[in-house]
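Q: What residues go here?
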């Protein structure tokens, strides 16, 4: 049985696992779940989704997760692309094959499972696109009503998915920050539980399975470098949490060297890159965010401190790419791999290529790039 408590990521204020929490009441920063049991790697469950790691996730005894088969996505080695980029080995972890076509399925599976356990009346989320589609699907699977606030500029296929599974879609003029204000107001007035990125503790728990899977797929070791296209930051935060847990629990050797984390953003919305280069501990909101990679159009991520900490603790780096380079490398990734890559994946490849050219990623490195969504969501 998994046991856990909730701890503020900034001031260490604690709440019990049974508490229905948003952000910390003392400092407003995100809570994270601290797993206090010690799951054994030999007891992984014989199922081929992220709930294979159920003993490491916040799940009550005999509780069935709200699952659509998320996770356990392919890790594809691409020797030709590695040679083109200029590194020794390169893999792509393809999150496009998840339910609703992005990595967001992982976090929303975990968050909706816990929200259902708390008996919430409904769920609300602001979204740049993929999180809204995922919440709509998992809310339907859980039998819970869902309201989604999305910018009117969100790609049409994603909006169609949200509507198709019965969510109440509200279009907002502006960016995800404007959608967030509307979602907060609705949650306050109607009692729906807000599952925006890091405004509850459990999306990060689902996303840490990105790290568990990577280690297992590499025979319980880790690569030298991970390149993650980053908007809100939940993928980086979840993986970094997973690496520490796996060492603490004995899933990885005590002397395991963690990967250098690379955050990839778009030139038109790069608050984490700007903060990292300035040596800041937090990011200031990006003015007038613009990029066709909708998942990267997050001007003021709540998880900024945690992402920047992971970058520095890992000896990592942050980089951004132009719109033209994102388009070119999205096409290059798709044509060299057969993966229908999203622009976010193209951004990760573009940033990787630039960092190798600049000598900031070594030529003898083993690199994993995450393609976080599907190109079909943009057409």
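A:
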């Amino acid at each position: 049985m998994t046991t856990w408590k909730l701890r503020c990521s900034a001031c260490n204020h604690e709440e019990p696992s049974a508490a229905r929490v948003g952000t910390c009441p003392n400092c407003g920063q995100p809570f994270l779940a601290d797993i206090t049991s010690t799951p054994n790697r030999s007891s992984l469950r014989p199922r081929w989704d992220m709930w294979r790691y159920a003993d490491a996730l916040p799940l009550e005894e005999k509780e069935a997760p709200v699952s659509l088969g998320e996770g356990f996505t392919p890790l594809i080695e691409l020797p030709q692309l590695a040679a083109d980029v200029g590194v020794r080995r390169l893999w792509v972890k393809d999150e496009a094959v998840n339910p609703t076509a992005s990595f967001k399925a992982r976090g929303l599976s975990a968050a909706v499972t816990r929200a259902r356990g708390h008996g919430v009346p409904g769920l609300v989320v602001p979204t740049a696109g993929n999180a809204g589609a995922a919440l709509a699907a998992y809310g339907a699977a859980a039998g819970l009503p869902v309201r989604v606030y999305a910018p009117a500029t969100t790609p049409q296929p994603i909006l169609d998915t949200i509507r198709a599974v019965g969510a109440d879609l509200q279009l907002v003029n502006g960016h995800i920050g404007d959608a967030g204000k509307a979602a907060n107001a609705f949650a306050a007035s109607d009692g729906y539980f807000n599952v925006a990125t890091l405004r509850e503790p459990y999306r990060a728990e689902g996303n840490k399975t990105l790290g568990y899977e990577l280690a297992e797929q590499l025979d319980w070791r880790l690569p030298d470098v991970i390149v993650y296209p980053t908007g809100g930051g939940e993928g980086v935060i979840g993986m970094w949490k997973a690496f520490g847990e796996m060492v603490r629990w004995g899933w990885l050797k005590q002397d395991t060297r963690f990967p250098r984390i690379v955050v990839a953003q778009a030139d038109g919305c790069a608050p984490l890159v700007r903060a990292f280069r300035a040596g800041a501990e937090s990011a200031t909101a990006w003015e007038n965010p613009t990029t066709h990679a909708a998942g990267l159009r997050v001007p003021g991520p709540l998880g900024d401190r945690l992402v920047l900490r992971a970058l520095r603790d890992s000896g990592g780096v942050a980089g951004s790419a132009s719109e033209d380079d994102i388009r070119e490398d999205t096409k290059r990734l798709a044509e060299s791999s057969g993966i229908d890559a999203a622009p976010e994946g193209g951004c990760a490849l573009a940033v990787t290529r630039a960092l190798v050219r600049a000598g900031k990623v070594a030529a003898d490195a083993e690199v994993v790039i995450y393609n976080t969504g599907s190109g079909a969501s943009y057409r």
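A: Context that may help when evaluating the design: The radius of gyration is 19 Å. The CA atoms of residues 208 and 238 lie 4 Å apart.
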